[in-house]
Amino acid sequence: NAGVTQTPKFQVLKTGQSMTLQCAQDMNHNSMYWYRQDPGMGLRLIYYSASEGTTDKGEVPNGYNVSRLNKREFSLRLESAAPSQTSVYFCATLQYGNQPQHFGDGTRLSIL
Amino acid sequence: AQKITQTQPGMFVQEKEAVTLDCTYDTSDPSYGLFWYKQPSSGEMIFLIYQGSYDQQNATEGRYSLNFQKARKSANLVISASQLGDSAMYFCAMREGLGDSWGKLQFGAGTQVVVTP
User: Fold this and answer.
1) From A46, B13, B32, B57, which residue has the greatest number of CB atoms within 10 Å?
2) pLDDT of residue B101
3) A48 touches chain B (CB under 8 A)
């Protein structure tokens, strides 16, 4: 998915370590989102940024922080990783209106 | 409270047959949108079809159609003439309201579809 790029694709962490998941888009979209997907469940919203300079909490924000660095980039930080944060993380973007969100390919994160 | 309910955890369907995936939703907002996404085993999220709450006609996109029954709060996805490549997890999602928060999606738990020859 050339429009929304997530790095890294895979990562293994130890409990207590920190890391930042990166998301960059070349679609010139205003809004960006971070979701997590746990086995057997749909995606749940962690944080979102409706426009450059703004961020807001979603359904499951605890343990995460975000930064909307500029219009293109939206990062998700785990300050002290916990096994409960083992998940697949998706970044998505949206321009406006009734358009669908465009998703990155996901980051598979395991915390031991 | 669960806003999107997909009651079918998994389904088998024969190639070339049609399949209906159920989705019911809960909202008191008059303005909302309903989306269906496909997630193959490779993991990416692929947008299939969209229905707005004010749309008069049911949405269609190629082999995909949405059976939108507003009064019953259901938005079922119909896949016609199933193909082996349709084997995937299918998610129903809803966006509510207007304003800055309106792009947020709430997802159902998904339905796993397996298409058999």
Assistant:
1) A46
2) 57
3) yes
